[in-house]
Amino acid sequence: MIRLALIAAAFGLAVACMPQKQPAQSATPAATQSAGAFFKVEADAKNGKILVTLPAPDKDGLMLRAIHAGGLTAGLGSNPVGLDRGFFDEGRVIDFRKVGPKVVVEQENWNYRATTDNPDEKRAVKDSFARSFLWSGDIVSESADGVVVDLSGFLTSDVLDVKGILKRTGQGDYSIDKDRSLPDYNSVLVFPDNVEMDAYLTLTSDKAGSEVAATAAEGRAFTLIQHHSFVRLPDDGYKTRDFDSRMADIDVPFYDFGAKLSDPIVRRYARRFRLERVDPNAASGPVKKPIVFYIDNAAPEPIRSALKEGVSWWADAFKAAGFENAFEVKILPEGASPMDVRYNVVEWSHRQTRGWSYGGGIVDPRTGEMIKAHVILGSQRVRQDRMIFEGLEGADKTGSGAPDDPDELALARLRQLGAHETGHTLGFAHNFAASTNDRASVMDYPAPDVRVTADGELDFSHAYAVGMGAWDKVMVKWLYSEFPSGTDEKAALGKIVEDAYASGLRFVDDNEARDVSTANPFGAVWDNGADPVAALDATMRVRAVALKNFGERSLKAGEPISDLKAIVTPIYLYHRYEVDAAAKSVGGYDFRYAVKGDPAAAGAPVPVERQRAALAALVATLDPAALDLPDATLNLLNPALASFGTGVEKPELFESDAGAMFDLLSAADAAGAETLTALLHPERAARLIETARRDPGALHYEDVLSAIEARVFAPAATPREAEIARTLQTRFVSMLIDLAGGGASGQESQAS
Known about the structure:
18% strand
């Protein structure tokens, strides 16, 4: 998915593994640990304290610096809220500092710095921007061995801003109940380079939020388990790599007030693991320490094996970049905690509904070095994929093990998903142009490539690609390559970029792909093929075959007929993402991310003949005949028995004004709105008008309006199609009224 924090996303994204100790080393839980430990910890359950012994303070009161990250060992289970099992923030550098009779946890501000050797310059930047005291606690004792403080208050503080997340997601005002928030004294694990701790965090409200009420045992008082990782700062051996906007890497931006006047003040490092060859001057060879990922044991078979296979694809990309045995995938050892910072984990998490998966974790904000990778995969997504395939072809082959078995197709998608989210943690962002480059990357969102055979059947043999694509291998080569001493690294990296683009590879990021308003004709999600017009036509043929055959065949024996009402929704709207992809060509603007000196740096409008072809394909989706369903199908789309239970997921259904009957006009209106919204978006209208200013022969905004009008007001073949046409006419006219009255569309598009 997205920059996680964006997206992350959004959606925090990439994160990583420590270059220190291996997971085989042991720890002493809930006990005093001193020799060789990162810092001494004593879990005193009897007195309700977590006592830590910190080194004696220096002249500035500084006792210890560390990377600290918060996460959730146990979450809420609501996709809209996002407080999932396995959630991690990206981490921060903290100081334990003695200030008078107290110990303060201070977060260092690495957004502003001076990369210079002058200590006065560094101090000036530090003093110019506010620091953050995250917590303070009374000193319990002080001796030659160090300073002892009870860390319980910090462990039960809201380091993840859970209260803010709940409020921003519409769950209302919750407070942390201090009496019901306390450390888990049996969770403490102390290692030479990290300390792991859990705490119970109980949140209360007079009125439960809807999502909290649906997922928690009691919505007015629910308890999460908040995790804390304290990690020794990595040594100085890591080498940073500057971010390049032409590659799909993930950046760590900061202001560098030590930069030369002639250089930009904003700098960006690329996020990545520390990976070094035994012989850095060799073109290829073994690595000092491989990147190891662990698949959560909580994932059942055959899901666990599918994830292991999909994540393992990255080994081929590292081998192609000259790193032998650099990437390994194992099953998480029994008894190991997925939250332990020593493990890069692909975690299997459950929610009430299906939702996004994430690739994130912990990163050193000073350098971009990845400290712990953590992937969260929602368990309901694979079931949704299986349901869609059963809707397309029927359920008779489910469980057969055949290539067109919906279970096998869903697992094929899961392999892609595991590789995709792991890619984020390796340092790679989305590339939503990869689907137009013969599936060049797992970092796109892959739509299943289903085809119609000559005899009118559906062919699923090309549904998903297997393994790494050409762009994936380029990304690994660019982000991780080591060069022999004496090499001009900037020039060598630039050559990798130039060769990639010269080979025909493309890159389009989230901002230019996700929204239907965007202009790049190669940037779209859940699409297929280099030609979006041909892909839309092919998708409409698949949809027609699936809807023609739709019925009880999409159910397994014993399943309620009412389930068809939920299954028909993604099949009826099967074309919606290709609609968005094709619409990018109408008023489209083809460009690439470039730097000075790059060839083909200038953008250009999409050729007018391609725009007209896309427009024709799009208005064809408004044909009432394509939006009709036979009575035999409609009479099977009946309501389900209502549940008396609470917290039961409601399936995604079309809105209906017809009560128990399926409302075909509502479904047709929803499908028509997909196309009309794409074509009538104010930004698209503005681009069409701007292009026509420059070129009198260009497609004009009025051409788009005329094409839509001709289609939706065309004489209908049958009375029932006439009803669908009137629904589309109403939608079209109402959208024109909204467009004419909206300031965002611009005066000229309103006038048109």
